[in-house]
Amino acid sequence: MVNTKVVEVGVGVFVALGLAALFMLAMHVSNLALSEGSGDGYEIVAYFDNVGGLKVRSPVTMAGVNVGRVRAIEFDDRTYQARVTMGIGARYDKIPADTMANIFTAGLLGEQYVSLDAGGDDDYMKDGGEIRITQSALVLEQVVGQFLYSKAAEGPAAPPAGTGGFDSQDPFAP
Amino acid sequence: MIELLRRLGRGAIGFFERLGRAHLFLARVLWGLGELYSRPGLVVAQLWSLGVLSLLIILVSGLFVGMVLGLQGYNTLVDFGAEESLGVLVALSLVRELGPVVSALLFAGRAGSALTAEIGLMKATEQLAGMEMMAVDPLRRVAGPRFLAGWLSLPLLAAIFSAMGVLGGYFVGVGLLGVDDGAFWSQMQSKVDLRDDVLNGVIKSIVFGFVVTWIAVFEGYDCVPTSEGVGRATTRTVVHSALAVLGLDFVLTALMFNEG
Question: Distance (Å, rounded) from C-alpha B185 to C-alpha B5?
Answer without folding.
Answer: 61
